Amino acid sequence: MNQISFLLLFPLAPALLLAFISNQIVRNLIVWVSSLALIFVSLSLATAHLGTSPEFFSVDSPVLEKLFFAGEIILSLYLLWRCRGINKKESYIPVLIILQAGIGIFLELSGKLPKVENAFYVDNLSIIMALIIGIIGTIICIYSLGYMKEYHEHHKEMKENSRGFFFIFFLFLSAMFGVVLCNNLVWLFFFWEVTTLCSFWMIGYSKTEEAKRNSYLALGMNLIGGLGFSIALVYLTFFTKAPTIELDKLIHAGSALALIPACLICFAGLAKSAQLPFSSWLLGAMVAPTPVSALLHSSTMVKAGVFIIIKMAPILQHTTAGLFLAGVGGVTFLMASLMAVSQSNAKRVLAYSTIANLGLIVTCAGVGTYEAIWAALLLVVFHALAKGLLFLTVGTVEHKIGSRDIEDMEGLIVLKPFLGVVMLIGIAGMFLAPFGMLISKWACLKALMDASPILAVLLAYGSAPTLFFWSKWMGKILSVSSNAVTMESPVDTNEATALTSLAIPTVLTCLLFPLIASVAIEPYISNLYGQTMSLSRGNMLIMTIMLGLIILVPLGFVFYPRKQKHVSSYLAGANVSGSTSFLGAMGVVKDVATRNYYLSAAFGEAKLSKASVILGGALILGMFVVVII
Amino acid sequence: MTKIALVLAYVIGGGVLGGLLSGFDRILTARMQSRKGPPLLQPFFDVLKLMDKRTVVVNNYQTFYVACFLIFIVLTGSLFFVGGDLLLTIFALTVAGIFLVLGAYSSHSPYSTIGAERELLQMMAYEPALLIAALGMYWVTKSFHVSAIVSYSHPLIAVLPGIFISVLFILTIKLRKSPFDLSTSHHAHQELVKGLTTEFSGSSLAMIEVAHWYENIMLMGFVYLFFASSPIIGIAATILVYILEVLIDNMYARLTWQFTIVSSWTVTAGLAVTNLMAITLLLK
Amino acid sequence: MAYFKKSPWIFHYDASSCNGCDIEVLACLTPLYDIERFGIINTGNAKHADIFLVTGSVNEQNRSVIKNLYDQMADPKVVVAIGICATSGGIFRTCYNVQGGIDKLIPVDVYVPGCAARPESIIDGVVKALGVLEQKAMALKHEQLVESV
């Protein structure tokens, strides 16, 4: 319980300190110390509690209850105050805030809220999430130290608010710990809405018109999801035979009793994870500074959405509603992967890829069988690492080359070797065998096929475009013009540390995933389902061989380089200076330039978004219809 | 022990068989064009000659990518013939293909790059069909392992006809035959000069050629799986399929990448997915 | 080392030819002459080829092209000048823009005169070139052995 309290409360200390301190050196110190502390405590939570059964902790304190209630009110008031800047289209937002606050006040004052036996808990899934928040989150914070400095140097016209930035950052970490460790659904919902607030604040950081509109979009969509959560709480208090607001009791209540609130909570999860039809807020959120995109919008906050859906999985197992939910995830995976093909803005590609992978996790969670959850948990781990790494790398690269367009990252492996290698590790981690995502995909296919073949077909069709856009990007990084030279601009220490600290685990988790699976994932599943699955020894051997080859063969080439004759590339004999220019029409010398295919005519957003939103919305509607009938 | 024997058989025999298959392809093509064609062992002469050339490169790394391509193709084929997991085999095949694509990208030449892009488009076109084929086989035989699929007592073609036809369709892409030889084509045909393989020469080109032999043998093995319950019919069917592919190659001109993707995905959806739906509803 | 004889890949470039010799070269590839019997393939790419067939003479526009293509070929390589224009400039030898035969630029191994050179002569020339190719390959092998020692 001590670690839980620490993780929940401690981040508030640096948050408050950093809200008032402008001095860079002191700020760096506070961030480093707090981060190390959080990493240490997260790890100790893991080592203490990583076992087979969940542990519960009760907290009997009416003061705490009053505090949470006050917190909800303050939160709603602050959000209403921030709604001063809305335009006509966004006027639904204050309505939602008032509605939500109203429901919360009604529940609290009605006195009918069920008594909570255990307010906090820890189980393997919470530990995995806590490690992600505590380790990846803090690494991103360290990264932000370097990033925000350069960000404001590049954007001198922007008003700097680093104090607010780091305050919200640590507040967010605290809230995330709350989401994953809280058993009391009302309090969990409070933490959930704090993360919404943090996301809203961060997206609007640059105060440009675009940022403002996108922050309201994010706020609005998350509030719609939150409404679902509120209604679930009302249902659980007034409309069930055995009222409870405890997460574990809900999960063990079974499908017959708990399906409706589970679907409502999953609805909130879908909005938070930017699944169709709510995907546009995540794409808009890319205007935020990159550490925000890494932390909130890929590694952590959106993971809260899928986290809650995974938690609901045992209830959704073998139900039609669960299949509809899985369908939402599957369609999201397919459509987001297709749309990612047409994007050349690196952050948008990453955003679409995030939405797609979350969709895959949702599909698995909706299916809810033990195999599917095994796959989903693996996906959560690998995605958090690789995507966080990629966002951070893109952020640094953007500052170094002045662009976040993939076309400008040509030859990055020579121009900026360290960043090039790190980016390649990240991309490989996202889709290449034998890296983690691939193992997850393998597990997904099997699990989905056993549950519903249509879902497996969606996965089969969706994974094709993913290989296309990732390989395209890799190719761009590796496509070196013969006159390319390494740029001389060193990477900030904080950023470099962060990147290395994420790159190495990305590779290590692939090597060690059987260990992770057997220590963390499988106990959780056998506890919940009574049985678990694991990768067969034969397959593990194959993975090891492949990984070994991928690591050893490049080393072989580094240590035994062959002396070969260099010639120019084939330009139909019209080469002018080696491989870089040729004699074009009218005797004009032209430079060789290569561009990737973006297929925007077929896979552009303009073509696909409307259909995607309609499909997603229809499937969610279907889910609720099925549940109510 | 038998696993090692199988791997060795594939590494040694697969290469030889692949080369002979390639030679057979060229003779058949020639006869269809009222020509005599080269000797059966021509592909081996080609590879041996290429090994004797002094390789020229555009950059220091392209040979590395091709070496990885070859190693991973052999790994994939070995995995397949040892009876391993079919899904992993397909994923390993993807990795191998990506190495070749990266090798083409690395040279930063227009022809190579377009060849690489088209190769990725081709991979995007055939991936769903391959995966759905594996899913179909899994449903019928209850296992993803090639060893289980091969030893299944009933002919898979009887329950997976739609999937089989979609596999034939994308086989044209995989074997680099017209109308879908967009990224590079075999020796007598040119496409974007040589597309993917434009900037490779000598030993690198030899490695690519040999890798294609191994890949083709593995693909023929995949076709064989549909008929595995009776080996003689299986081998005969596989040879017939190959002859059919050569015939298609000689009948059609090259088409566009748009058509490749649209037709592949449509055929997959129309035939393979409906087949899959049918067996999941009817078979248990 | 007999493999160059068994698998010679050609690469055909029209320098400033009137296309007469080019048509004859392509005729060799047709079923009537079917040079693929000998393993000969027309690759379109300098890096893949052993034999460089050039027709037409050198002028200002194609100087750099011929040089580029020749340089991009992998050793061992041979050049066959097809037609009298490639050999010496032909009837255009005295024109202001023609600099002469291909050997003004790159070392030619076999000359196939004719205007247009007939397929039989071209095939004959290529077969002669194969002998030269074999010799060069031997020399290269020796050189590589010496280098590695």
Can you give a write-up of this model?
The complex is a heterotrimer of chains A (629), B (284) and C (149). Chain A is mainly α. Chain A is built from 25 helices and five strands. In chain A, strand 4 (581-583) and strand 5 (589-591) form a beta hairpin. Chain A starts with a helix and ends with a helix. In chain B, 74% of the residues lie in helices and 1% in strands. Chain B has helices at 2-32, 42-52, 62-81, 86-106, 110-141, 146-150, 156-159, 161-174, 202-225, 231-251, 257-282; one strand at residues 56-57. Chain B has one domain. Chain C is an alpha/beta fold and 149 residues long. Chain C has a five-stranded parallel sheet with strand order 2-1-3-5-7. Chain C has a two-stranded antiparallel sheet with strand order 4-6. The model of chain C has no long low-confidence stretch (mean pLDDT 91). The interface between A and B is large, with 58 and 62 residues. Strand 3 (565-566) of chain A pairs parallel with strand 1 (56-57) of chain B, so a sheet runs across the interface.
